[in-house]
Amino acid sequence: MQFETIGIVGAGQMGAGIAQVCGAAGLSVVLNDVDPHALERGVERISANVERLVSKGKLAPNQAEDALACIEASPDASALTTCDIVIEAATENIRIKQQILRELDAVVRPDAIVATNTSSVSITQLAATLSDPSRFVGMHFFNPVPAMALVEIIRGMQTSDATFDTTVALAERLGKSAIQVKNVSGFVVNRILVPMINEAIFALQEGVASAEEIDAGMRLGANHPMGPLALADLIGLDTVLSIMEMIQRAFGDTKYRPATRLREMVDAGHLGRKTKRGFYSY
Ligand code: NAD
């Protein structure tokens, strides 16, 4: 299947980032959001990112203009009727996502692929909302989308080979590396990364070492570009906690229990960089 027109539902940090990389790859993009202000902010975010790339010499001014010209912002879901693929990147809430998929089912072409960027909702469960679940797939980008090389492509139980292969081809056209992942909680990256961060918090609460020493240990001893506690501050401690809870619920295994210190910090409103206080002060 050829793809030339991509629809993106949700113009937040992820939707805007996906729109930016699609525009840069020369695809026509329809960026949709129910909230006209969010749509405006999404377009402003893309323009600012693209300008930054031009000022750093990473993008020629004419390439920037071409990328921005490819992106049409529309608050109206009927603008998605021409799309070959629609990627849902709206708020992480199963009810909202199911409602969006029902609406998409009524407007997209019968041969269009529908993908979701969900971090935690079951692809199989979301697929069941569509009249043809074989055309549904998980396409999990990483934040910030223009900078991160990976996309996890997740098969639901119903995903067809053709849908899967086309989605991998799209990820490659966007300059990303795709890995195939089963529909299991946390997929691959969050399943490994977030329990590692949680373990670093256990080490801190047990007094094994200070935050600085734990982070230095993983930077210098495991060659991680950033220590796990600094990374937790960047992701947001509320997000780290909700992913741990989701993984623990899915597997029912106490090894995934969130560290008490993590819960306490979230209760205290010390969420990391976004509140200027987490394991470090900002
Ligand atoms: P966000 O809050 O920045 O943006 C969500 C957007 O969805 C908002 O602009 C909101 O107005 C819009 N929206 C809500 N209901 C809608 C509807 N019915 N129709 C159209 N738009 C609607 O969220 P985000 O961080 O961009 O996350 C979006 C998705 O990407 C989530 O599923 C999240 O789990 C996933 N994700 C996030 C990250 C991350 O680091 N933030 C990483 C990978 C995947």
What does this structure look like?
Helices cover 47% and strands 14% of the residues. It is an alpha/beta fold and 282 residues long. It has 2 domains: 5-181, NAD(P)-binding Rossmann-like Domain (Rossmann fold); 190-275, N-(1-d-carboxylethyl)-l-norvaline Dehydrogenase, domain 2 (Orthogonal Bundle), CATH 1.10.1040.10. An 8-stranded mixed sheet has the order 3-2-1-4-5-6-7-8, with helices on both faces. The structure holds nicotinamide-adenine-dinucleotide (NAD).
Ions, cofactors and other bound molecules:
nicotinamide-adenine-dinucleotide
| Helix segment tally | 11
The share of residues in extended strands comes to: 5-15%
Order of helices and strands: EHEHHEEHEHEEHEHHHHH
**Unreliable stretches, pLDDT < 50, 5 or more residues?**
none
Q: In which order are the strands of the major sheet placed?
A: 3-2-1-4-5-6-7-8
Q: In total, how many beta strands?
A: 8
Number of domains as seen in the coordinates: 2
Give the full name of the CATH homologous superfamily of the largest domain.
NAD(P)-binding Rossmann-like Domain
Give the class from helix and strand content and strand pairing: alpha/beta
CATH class of the largest domain: Alpha Beta
* Radius of gyration over all CA atoms, rounded: 20 Å
Question: What key phrases describe this protein's structure?
Answer:
single chain; 282 residues; alpha/beta; Rossmann fold; N-(1-d-carboxylethyl)-l-norvaline Dehydrogenase, domain 2; 2 domains; 8-stranded mixed β-sheet; 11 helices; globular; binds nicotinamide-adenine-dinucleotide
Short summary:
The chain has helices at residues 13-24, 36-55, 61-69, 94-107, 123-127, 161-173, 189-205, 211-221, 228-235, 237-251, 260-267, and strands spanning 5-9, 28-32, 71-74, 85-88, 113-116, 136-141, 150-155, 177-182.
